[in-house]
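Sample A.
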Amino acid sequence: MLDLIDIGANLTHESFAADRQAILARAAEAGVKRIIVTGTTLSASRDALQLAHDHPGRLYATAGVHPHHAAEIDTETLTGIRELAADPSIVAIGECGLDYFRDYSPRQAQRDAFEKQLSLAAGTDKPVFLHQREAHADFVALLKNVLGQIAGGVAHCFTGERLEMKTYLDMGLYIGITGWICDERRGELLRDAARYLPLDRLLLETDAPYLLPRDLRDKPSGRRNEPSVLPHVLKAVARCMRQPAKIVAEAATQNSELLFRLSESNI
């Protein structure tokens, strides 16, 4: 029986409101025993923490502001995130970073918000849950300023190529891999990079309800991704890494426990 941890699922998303308990039941049946619920705004982070409180030892949460919402960040928001971070069920600061692909917030606002959350993370002794899309150079430059001050982090939903991955590994980051690796159109660079990913830096995630694997045979109604799909991602990663799925699963779980300090103290 698998013992997997989905390190990134947006369970506060409205698409989960009607059947969240069934989703958790399906995840457990599939071997996904623990899930980290992603916080993307102050409000969503509060909701994520409430879910973690409702399911102690099973759900955990992150607290942060996604770059899409960077223009909304202010002193009150940062204070709220800092207060949430004091709760043991909050295991990381984020989702934070830069997104120059969508540019839903001005780039300078994104950089300012990212810097502020990195500084906040340094003061909480919690790792960072990182987002980067088409902003590699600025992302690395800002992150390097605080590397010695933060408690590690993960490049969430990594979709890049081998050299980009090496940069993150050299910075001490973990690499989070989603169903993007199953995409025959867009996942080729990621599949190549995964061949060189050390087992001790791998984390697994679904990013549900997004990124439903394109090669999934029995696609759910509405094409909504959910944590029970994680074993499918595991198998794809194992093939790329040329390792038995059991070995990859054990490594990913151990890495997740180490980075996010998942233990009895989080319950």
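Sample B.
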Amino acid sequence: MQKLGLAYNRLPLVQPPFTGPPGLAQSSSPQGPAIRVCPGCGIIAPFARAECGACKTPFGPTPPFAPGRVGSVLFACIHACEFKCSACGMPSPLASVELGGQVECMRCGLMQAFDVAQWTDALGHAHDVSDLAGPAPEGQNPLPGRSIAGKSAHGRIGTEFTSSTKSQNGMIMDARGTRHHTLKTTVSPGHPLCRACRVPLEVMLEGNGVTRTRCPRCNDGATYGLPPNAGSTYAALRGVLAGEQRTDRPVARTTRGQSGALGVACPQCGAAIAAGEGEMVKCTYCGTTARVPGRLARRQIAGEPPAVDPFWVLLDGLSPGRKKLLRGKSDDDDDDDDDDDVPYGAQAPIAPNGMPSWAHPNMQQAGYGAPQRPRSIAGLVLGITVAVVLLLGALGVGAALYLQADDDAPPAKQAPAKKGKR
């Protein structure tokens, strides 16, 4: 088991020696510094901001600092996650990394197919954000002699921005049929907090896919398991800290009343439990604390689906974006959209300590704060495609008119006039 101490000051974290079991992956790359986190939700607290861009909690004069990792494993908070329902067309939230191939719309209740390949892209994006975000110019996994400073699209997260959003909008057609990708995730680096004490949790990884957390103040602990097929979906995924993945509490039972409505019952004594009051519900009869699956709890609530609690993913090693940058390629993605806490083209506030902004190279060339010239390869390709289609269409119309035209008949030969006798 690997355990990480916590730092509550501005000094870089000193990483303790690894004492985990054999088989737990460890990276030999240098460890990054501690990061400043929001005291309300635990995501990164940008130096140029006074409140959290997600939960709106004021940072205060001394926000906490936390590692944001355990060993080589980085923490990324997914604090907004939804897909577009294929029936009602409305966005529906997800409370965890759903890898079972099916999801249920929290608005219309339809159980529908869900291509888990969407999570491969979403987790890769989360890995990039947690690895490449600032305020350190080299991100969280710097390599000696191989600088990426000023090259990452996520370098301003931690100095000015809070999060980055990836919206998937595509259709896949292959031998398995037609599948729509509509998953949208908003991600921030950070460190999970205790719900009661709001202090950074101690996070411990075990080699069998189990993750344990403990609050250093109230000693409250939790155990989480990996969802099925995690390794085949994203090999670097080491843990998911979500209510749906807790394994240290019994799961409430489902009952059906005379009217056919679903209810929730205590797994110990069978008494009815008031679902929808929280992730963990304590039975008023026998005192058993049971986990009510979020899908079942939300069925008991009429109207708009309630807000889904943020969840954390634990991602190991170098991110795909860092590997691209080290090969001389760009990590920029047209689907990546850093949060718009600052209006487009406006000057962001400068941190009191004068910390510089490590911006994307395009912004450095145009000058920070100036309106940026949009850069879209897709637009160029679309223009060329339209021109080619119009040209082919004109040629086709010309050929059709030529084939349908009647050829003029050749002039008839006149018989030679006979010469008269003189």
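B remarks: The chain has two domains: 2-242+309-378, 249-301. The longest helix spans residues 377-404.
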